[in-house]
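Hello again,

I reread your note about wanting to compare the complex against the isolated chains. To keep things tidy I'm splitting this into two emails, and this first one only covers the full assembly. Below are the input lines as submitted, including protein chains and any nucleic acid or small-molecule components. They are followed by the predicted structure of everything together. The single-chain runs will come separately.
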Amino acid sequence: MKTGILVFPGSNCDMDCYHVIKDVLGQKTEYIWHGDKKLDHFDALILPGGFSYGDYLRTGAIARFSPVMDSVIEFADSGKLVIGICNGFQILLESGLLPGAMLRNRDLHFICRYVDLKVENEKTPFTSKLKKGRVLRIPIAHNEGNYFADDETLRKLKNNNQIIFRYCSNPNGSLEDIAGICNERGNVLGMMPHPERCSEALLGSDDGRLIFESMIDWVKKNG
Amino acid sequence: MVKPEVYKELGLTDLEYQRIEKLVGRDPSPTELAMFSVEWSEHCGYSRSRSLLKRLPRKGKYPILVGEDAGGIIVDDLAVVFKMESHNHPSQVEPKQGAATGVGGIIRDIFTTGARPIASLNSLRFGPLKEPFNRYIFSGVIDGIQSYGNCIGVPTVAGEIYFEDAYAGNCLVNAMSIGVCKKSEIARARACGEGNIIIYVGSRTGRDGIGGCSVLASAEFCEGEEKRPTVQIGDPFTEKCLIEATLEALKTGHVVGIKDMGAAGLTCATSEMALAGESGMEVDLSKVPLREEGMEPFEIMMSESQERELVCVKKGKEKEIIDIFKKWGLQAVAIGTVTSDKVLRIRYKGELVVDTKPEDLAKAPIYDLPTKEPGYVKDIRKLDYQSISVPKDLNDALLKLLSSPNIANKSYVYEQYDHMVQTNTAVLPGSDATVLRLKGTGKGIAATTDCNGRYCYVNPHIGAMTAIAEAARNLACVGAEPAGVTDCLNFGNPDKPERYWEFKGCMEGIIEACQSLKIPVVSGNVSFYNESPRGPIYPTPTIGMVGVINDMKHISSAPFKNEGDAIILLGENTSEIGSSEYLKVIHNQVKGDVPSLDLKKEKAVQSVCLEAVQRGLVNSAHDCSDGGLAVTLSECCISGEKTIGAEIKLDSNIRSDALLFGEGQSRIILSCSPANQQKIETLAKKRKVPFKVIGKVGGDCLKINDLINLPIDSVYSSWKSAIPRLMGLI
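Full-complex prediction:
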């Protein structure tokens, strides 16, 4: 899987994703600067966590105007894999690749800790190595992870099985415990928890690795 | 002739002014005078502390690195750079920005050495949380640390927080940062090579923070003063870009030297870089990017605007370096050149406003100040044990201690910090020390901060020794060999002999302990004048300590892991209860001398623990400190992912409250599978360390003799809910 990891000024999980994809999983990986445009040679893109442009405005609101984002939208439209993690998820929401919005956490505090995450849909390129109902131990680290969508959007998400992950115990007030969703086609995933932070046993959990391995598997079969 | 009120307002004394006049050989210009005032402030010149700082030990097992801005240790081909710095006064004036810029400043000290910052720690002191103002300072400081630290992507992994009346008018915010780079990539903070270019990078210069170090940090807080304009405002996004741009620029090999513009801003950066490079410098202030019009040259030279640095670049390579900073959206402007005549010449709109030697600016007077034992000392060390009654309900006493904010769980704080970014944190916050792996090496480091201010108040010498001993013990518990210290020395007004006596006592304690345990001091910072109308702070020499883990396969943490494991006490229980958290919380007294400390015994206990962890014999290790044995055992039961009980039998004729809550030093609680018990005992015997199996892990109660019998859930909830409850969240 040839993976491109986007780097916006202020991204800060770009190197963590790079480490997991390249050093832990042995895949070809490159950074993509926010001013770049050419993405066709990649099989998958990661929009990493962090504070793109400082997130001084609404989270992800400035990053969506980055030159690279037009190419990301084209890339997603072509059916290739895009995963947005944390700030990456927020950017996917702002750019319209995924529906809904993020509110501040219920307690108005940044939260960094391990949570339990339930797999809701195993039939996606990101979860094929998981079973529905499986619980993953995975860290969150965000201030705005309180997912919100209007009733109509929520109904569509449910009908199309687009809710991929739910918190077992809701840490931030998100609607229906939603932690991760995909687009209708299933090739774009946004999730608040950080799989790249739990892909090595040394760090306390390697559950996150299954998500990346699912992607690798999918690319092998469909790429 | 400069009028006395002018130099006095800048914080200079008559004698200091005369000295400046003599060095310059004429009346100093207003800009020169301002520069001397900041360079000679305690913050930059260490006038009042240097005579003692010189005596700090510099030798240990690992070669040390003492740089211009930060120090460190060498581990194989890696440099581990670390430093702690105070931002107390700004945080008391404006908690959020004060703390945020404290974090930003220390991180710049690290990455301007060429090391990528891999972790932040912080050691905090506040007044009691029952007072609303203290809650405001506390939550503001936490907010400042989280907003800045989280944004720049450096994990905040460890620290400590204490609440005492002594800090109510003057909080302490000590920020520590650790960075790592190849030994060969260490950058210097110097300017040399005639004709090389001086480049200003980062944020624009504004009027914020003028006199931050000379005025704000060099006087006590008095009633009704307005000091807010001396506090700087942080911009973490710019800092994050500055980290990446700086490290990228250093990789080119074209950078001769680089320095953070922190305290004393351009003054400090220009003069100290020239001095370190044994050169002169020619600077045009008109080229400095400004935030507002009409700034005077002395304001530009003294501004402490954040997220700026000065870079000396090889002639002809300046465009390449400037382009890197521009790529990251940062200002980068050539403002001067290096000269060979060892003189600093600064012009503003054509006019020569500074013409002085950097070496003169570095000649801050050194004071050897008088000391006097404070009146309180003799009385406070006396404690009549008979007057202390043993509580009828020891279960209740234990729960009270666990809910004392000094002991209670701090997850309310550290869960607001991103402590996992960079994916190196192998032992998360909440254990004795945090453990960070060094990617690609199989090795790791551990870090902790430590200081019991109450101990240092009662007995500065032993109190400071204990801070070193305990920090080292914390490291041994996770399996790290103590390798280097950074100290952040927080004290009251040194011009008062009583306060200087406290300072001297603590310094001598640090020196003795570091010599005995063979741990070098590689960097540090002094913060005096921590006094308010409510009095001086407790003397607080915060110790930041870094240890080396040679094999990441064998590390440990505090919580008990398995039912049936044996619980071992290394070291000896004593009847000491002086200065304990127990006396303060249960009997409302700060009384009695601090627990004694025998550094040889301490070293032996640590060695046994370290060896047992390194050989993979233990399943948990936890240092016994605040709150004594009962609190330590409780923490072992409740600080893991799942709580677990324990049954303890102590064979002792020490009175029950001292046995449970006394803070006798040099004790560690281990747990291990019964199969390893014998092997640990052999290790202990070899070093003549008292070893005792005191119980077994398991069940859902904590039982200690017939003294304590509590369901583990209630132990957990007292400890876990105390701080959120005080903050009004539950």
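For quick reference: The first helix of chain A runs from residue 14 to 24.

B.
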